Amino acid sequence: MLDKRTPAAMPAPFAKYSHAVIVPAGTRMLFCSGQLGVSADGTIPEDAGAQADLCFTAIGHMLEDAGMGFADIVRINAFVTDRAHMAGYMASRDRHMPNPPPASTLMIVTGFTRPEFKVEVEIVAAKVD
């Protein structure tokens, strides 16, 4: 079982994430490449929140394929192309994450491979079999 922690000696997280996660020895790990907000038919929504939803849908497929779920996520690394896209991304993340949530980092970057992409999300997951 993952041990998601926010030490009492630290300030509370700014949003829905844990400061740290302990992964026990012998745990099966899944490392997912960054997912972009593109649908199966190649459509890219204009809205950053809708793009984030597609990122988490793809991540959900990878987790399911590995016999895991969102509760097994250890860490999220997310990237948005503008501070204005943070709220849409964070609302999507919060809808998909269990309590307690995983560790998480959100960065603002200058762009991705195509200018219409606004959000990219990668995760690390772990499960004790």
UniProtKB/TrEMBL annotation:
Protein name, UniProt field: RidA family protein
Record PANTHER family: BLR7761 PROTEIN, YJGH FAMILY PROTEIN
SUPFAM superfamilies, A to Z: YjgF-like
Organismal lineage: Bacteria, Pseudomonadati, Pseudomonadota, Alphaproteobacteria, Hyphomicrobiales
UniProt source species: Phreatobacter stygius
